[in-house]
Backbone:
């Protein structure tokens, strides 16, 4: 359907106009091979399987993710194979390894991408930054992506509740002339709420900015700054955390999700309304230069180069574990752990 967002018109694909039954019919002869069982692999593969598609999983044997796949009900030799076996058996290869994993496995995968197969991504990184990743597919396959706008865990949880996370989709190479219908079929099959069109470049640019910005990086920075100011001014850990994180995540964001920011403002105290309306532009003006810098770093490929170098470090996992432990052990999130356990549903 065509929807206008102000002066911009977009085409949105919903489940009503592209029903699951149609998606199953289109892909009935396909074997969907999901390579990788880390972040997006579990949610997408399990949702596809539960929706009636022929799905197999490829993962490195005896790894943590291999064991997770076994616990999730995948059976070795039936629908769980090594990466190489799954790549050979699949007609649609869903390349859901990490970006670093995709770079490492690409020299092996490319020989299994024979004429007429399809290569699927959920992130535009590998092809957008191909000069750095060295991922150059052949011209006789279909290449497309569906990128859920949320974590793989959320994709699965929403699916189980009969809901869906919205996803973007893009066609990179349409060898068969049927790439669009394959793309939309998988998008509906994994449980997308609706699908909106993008490009590989726009997907990765917006995704990298979002992750470093309001979705993860900026929000943690704002949490840490406000919590520190409150603590330095004598507020208790409980009060500081509740006013910084708990009230936002448990009370206000659900209201924003339900009706929008204006409605949330309209349904809080007049004191809160006035303060929020007077101060939000100051935060916008303070952070706008940072977001411009961030987008430039992504667009110039400097951020991609930094990511590849960091993730290729043989000690990356060790360093990552230390960084996450430092975050976990900060007073902000130690307090958060205690407060989460005090929520009524925990009792």
Residues:
């Amino acid at each position: 359907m065509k929807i206008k967002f102000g002066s911009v018109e977009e085409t949105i694909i919903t489940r009503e106009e592209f029903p699951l039954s149609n998606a199953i019919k289109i892909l009935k002869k396909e074997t969907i091979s999901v390579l990788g069982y880390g972040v997006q692999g579990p949610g997408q593969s399990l949702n596809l399987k539960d929706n009636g598609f022929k799905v197999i999983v490829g993962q490195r044997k005896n790894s943590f993710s291999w064991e997770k796949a076994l616990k999730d009900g995948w059976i070795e030799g039936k629908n769980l194979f090594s990466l190489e076996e799954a790549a050979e058996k699949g007609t649609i290869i869903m390349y859901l390894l990490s970006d670093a994993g995709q770079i490492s496995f690409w020299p092996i995968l490319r020989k299994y991408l024979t004429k007429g197969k399809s290569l699927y991504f959920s992130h535009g990184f590998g092809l957008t930054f191909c000069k750095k990743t060295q991922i150059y597919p052949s011209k006789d396959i279909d290449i497309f992506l569906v990128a859920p706008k949320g974590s793989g865990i959320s994709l699965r949880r929403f699916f189980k509740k009969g809901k869906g996370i919205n996803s973007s989709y893009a066609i990179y190479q349409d060898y068969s002339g049927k790439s669009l219908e394959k793309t939309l079929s998988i998008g509906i099959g994994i449980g997308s709420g609706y699908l909106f069109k993008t490009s590989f470049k726009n997907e990765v640019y917006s995704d990298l900015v979002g992750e470093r910005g309001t979705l993860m990086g900026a929000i943690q920075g704002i949490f840490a700054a406000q919590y520190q100011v409150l603590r330095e001014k004598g507020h208790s850990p409980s009060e500081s955390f509740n006013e910084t994180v708990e009230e936002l995540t448990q009370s206000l964001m659900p209201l924003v999700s339900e009706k929008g920011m204006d409605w949330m403002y309209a349904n809080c105290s007049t004191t809160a309304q006035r303060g929020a309306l007077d101060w939000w532009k100051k935060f916008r003006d303070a952070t706008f230069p940072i977001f411009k810098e961030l987008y430039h770093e992504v667009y110039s490929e400097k951020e991609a180069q930094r990511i590849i170098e960091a993730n290729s470090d043989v000690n990356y996992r060790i360093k990552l574990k230390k960084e996450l432990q430092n975050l976990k052990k900060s007073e902000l999130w130690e307090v958060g752990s205690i407060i989460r356990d005090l929520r009524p549903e925990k009792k």
Observations:
- The mean pLDDT is 94.
